[in-house]
Amino acid sequence: MNFKLNFLKNIFLLPLYLLIWLYTIFTFIPWYFLTDAQMKRTMAKRIKAKSTSGKPSGPYRSVDRFDSLSTMDFPGVDTLDKLFDHSVEKFSKAECLGTREVLSEENEIQPTGKVFKKLILGNYKWITYEEMDVQVNHLGSGLAALGQKPKNTIAIFCETRAEWMIAANACFRYNFPLVTFYATLGQDAVVYGLNQCDATHLITSVELLETKLKGIFSQLHNLKHVIYVDKKNIQTADYPKEIQIHSLESVQELGAKPEHLSVPPSRPSSSDLAVIMYTSGSTGIPKGVMIDHSNLIAGMSGQCERIPGLGPKDTYIGYLPLAHVLEMTAEISCVTYGCRIGYSSPQTLSDQSTKIKKGSKGDCSVLKPTLMAAVPEIMDRIYKNVMSKVQEMNYIQKTLFKLGYDYKLEQIKRGFDAPLCNMFLFKKVKSLLGGNVRMMLSGGAPLSPATQRFMNICFCCPVGQGYGLTETCGAGTITEVADYSTGRVGGPLICCEIKLRDWIEGGYTDMDKPNPRGEILIGGPNVTKGYYKCDKVSEDFFVDENGQRWFCTGDIGEIHLDGCLQIVDRKKDLVKLQAGEYVSLGKVESALKNCSLIDNICAYANSDQNYVISFVVPNQKKLTALANKQGIQGSWEEICNHPSMEAEVLKAIKEVAASNAVKLERFEIPVKVRLSPEPWTPETGLVTDAFKLKRKELKNHYLNDIERMYGGK
To answer: Are residues 515 and 409 in the same domain?
Structure first.
């Protein structure tokens, strides 16, 4: 019976195989020459970086800038205000920043009783480079009229939007060091940062003003002026009299007055402080990283070199937090090269996003971006959602998808493409992000090879991984567009170099085979000054005998033969079990994230125990279907707390861990699990804005479960 069924299936699939074979014969040869496929293959296989010392530990530099490191893109343009002036002069009439109109809002009541706000949005409204320049000038002049002094800090605590970039450029032009805070930071962290940086002026939104700032004004010692960016009227009588509340428009109107506008700005030098960027505090109190103009200029020169063809034909969608170095440098780079930036949010990004009313269009569908940055968490969600839809297809559709996927996978591994599959099989998937994305960049955390390959195939564009830190202006490495490997983060950018330092305790040295491994150190003009008002000089920064600054990342890397870097571990994620084995929690999480039942996972281990446990945010759709299949009824919370469901997730974890693609050791596989009915979001305080796990907060949150899973010890 099985033989007969398989025979019938093969007969049915024969025309499909024949179609692909004929397509390959008749289109491959012309396509091969017309698309420079051979050149792309050569670029993919070439050496990207070499050791300047000849030693396996490095330092490694890009072969494209081996003799000296890049410090700027354009001669003489050595500060951020000059960079913006250069763009305005070159692209004055072009569209620059775009924001969608909100046509209406309505509340939608869910079956659980929760109320979700749904939006119906219109088209994007744009301002040109020239119009942005005027707004920047008026705002900078207005802030100066309100008493803001050059080289005195000014804080911004605001969501990603056009006004954020306008405010930032006003600060750069008038030499007001900009202090950035994530919009999701808790009140204690905001109080700490604002008091530490001594800012007298704060730029924010009405929502944050009313929900977070209103209750902490009494704890802020220096604040005198609050500028809100929304076009709304608020009751200033509700706020302390010693703090003046202004709208952004009113400050711009003040700055536009001839007596203020006639006073020329005090322009910065390249060594002046441009930004104090407070980290998201994944390991405790947020630290303010001091970044001067020359650091950012150098870092962006390296990043832009890895994005071929960056220019006025590109549209970038901005939705990640601008207080994160990845998004801020990406947007400044786009403005530098004449791109336009359309603003979005994670809640309005696609047609299926949580704030988009059913039947209306998300931001990607309207904007049709060509460039996009994302954190792995978002890409993992897209991957799981699409694959979930594939599983719901009928047999014919599912078979077609799998055939096309496998065929294109083989083509990509050989350095080629599959235009017919792109046209007919993946067009609908590609349209989820507007249909025009030509390059995606992932940063903030390691991206799993499976997710990276899926995005390559289904969205029909290169998906590059970047590696960098706030302390290096987000610059370190980025994979080249032609590099079709996965799991690596590319070679060093032309603005910096990388070396490895042995970490004996963890078992990583430059003598490791087949490739040298060790702690990653990044050096170059993009390495920042250090931490703001740090009581002692941080051991993470040092200056070598040649006067070059270095930052010790705490990440463990492996340098491949072609000079590309792979992140293999993190010192803080390594736990020694009772029997002496070392477990990399990050490695365990990365390996298990692609389990279909798991949306997010945090591995945990105690040194006085001999096994690993885990906390899991399960996939609601998959787990609910599994519960129904087993006759388990109840609310989502009751399903997550059911012992049978915990057992099913553990079973799935073991199956994934045992697969050839993962290869976890026995002692690395979690043996107990706690399912969380609530997702981990920046708002819950359990992950950062880049969706990195906050291990300390997660440990405290699940303290009772840890005691239970470790038998009360």
So the answer is: yes
Domain of 20 in residue numbering reads as 2-34
- Model pLDDT for residues 602-639, shown as the tens digit of each residue: 999 988 788 999 999 999 989 999 999 999 989 999 99
693 phi and psi, to 5 degrees?
A: -70, 135
**By the 8 A CB rule, do 321 and 95 touch?**
no
Tens digit of pLDDT for each residue in 546-581? Answer: 999 999 999 999 999 999 999 988 888 888 887 778
- Note whether residue 366 is domain-resident: no
| Closest C-alpha among 298, 197, 469, 485 to residue 477 | 469
**Which are the contacts of 138, defined by CB distance < 8 A and separation ≥ 6?**
252, 253, 255, 256, 261
Residue 671 has pLDDT above 90, yes or no: yes
Distance CA 447, CA 380 (A): 8
Same domain, 189 and 333: yes
Domain count, the chain: 4
Compute the distance between CA of residue 365 and CA of residue 295 in angstroms, rounded to an integer.
Answer: 36
345 pLDDT band (50/70/90 cuts)?
very high
Q: Tell me the one-letter amino acid at 370.
A: T
Determine the length of the chain. 713
Q: Are residues 556 and 612 in the same domain?
A: no
Domain with residue 406: its CATH number is 2.30.38.10
Q: Residue 3 has what pLDDT?
A: 40
Q: How far is CA 104 from CA 101, 120, 231, in A?
A: 9, 5, 16
